[in-house]
Specification:
223 residues, NADH Oxidase, four-stranded antiparallel β-sheet, two-stranded antiparallel sheet, globular
Length: 223
């Protein structure tokens, strides 16, 4: 079968900015993101209507292999379902902390993490991010997805950035294994859970680890 010929339209969404505005916008954005911190103490304050939808819409603009957009986001706000996720996640975490290599536990020690995850109950929203390992046509045949991990990883980064920009705090929670999310959230086997993102306002008395990010000259090489 001959593939369809590519169809192109004029680039109408991009606009050039003056150099001074580029410098100002990039500097202000970097400063804003430098204030982002992973939070483990959440308030139960509700998130204003439309905020999560807009942030998810932003994440879904991410580039993807062959533009197949191999991601699915499940937003969980129901208290009973959040508690079910907490119970399942804590079961996995208890096993992890009981069997993890000493080196791994030592690497986590300065973050103060443990198997108790009360924020999964407290935060007003959880967003489970699934990678679609392959697509499915209406007739049930498979559609190969390309660069799935890379594509979904970009979308997750954009989602975290959008949520921070909107004024919300997040926690990237990755219990291992994460297969229970398929069962609890009734997702098909072709989807693989990659991340459980905890979203909401930080608690009034929230505290975060006293850590620093690497300086730019350690993570960037100019050639």
């Amino acid at each position: 079968m001959t593939p369809d010929a590519p169809s192109f339209v004029p680039l109408s969404t991009w606009r050039e900015l003056p150099a001074g505005e580029m410098q100002q916008r990039s500097g202000e954005f970097a400063e804003e993101l430098s204030r982002r911190r992973t939070v483990r103490h959440f308030s139960d304050r509700p998130i204003p209507d439309g905020v999560l939808e807009a942030c998810l819409r932003a994440a879904a603009t991410a580039p993807s292999g062959a533009n197949l957009q191999p991601w699915h986001f499940v937003v969980v706000r129901d208290p009973a379902l959040k508690h079910q996720i907490r119970e399942a996640a804590e079961r996995e975490e208890r096993e992890f902390y009981a069997t993890a290599p000493v080196e791994w536990l030592e690497a986590l020690a300065h973050l103060g993490t443990d198997e108790d995850k009360p924020y999964l109950d407290v935060a007003p929203a959880l967003i489970a991010v699934f990678a679609e390992r392959y697509g499915e046509r209406a007739d049930g045949t498979r559609v190969t997805h390309y660069y799935v991990q890379e594509s979904v990883g970009i979308a997750m980064g954009m989602l975290i950035t959008a949520l921070h920009h909107a004024g919300l705090a997040t926690l990237t929670h990755t219990p291992s294994p994460m297969g229970f999310l398929n069962r609890v959230l009734e997702r098909p086997p072709r989807e693989k859970a990659l991340l459980l993102l905890v979203v909401g306002y930080p608690a009034v008395d929230a505290r975060v680890p006293d850590i620093a990010r690497k300086p730019l000259d350690e993570v960037v090489t100019w050639r």
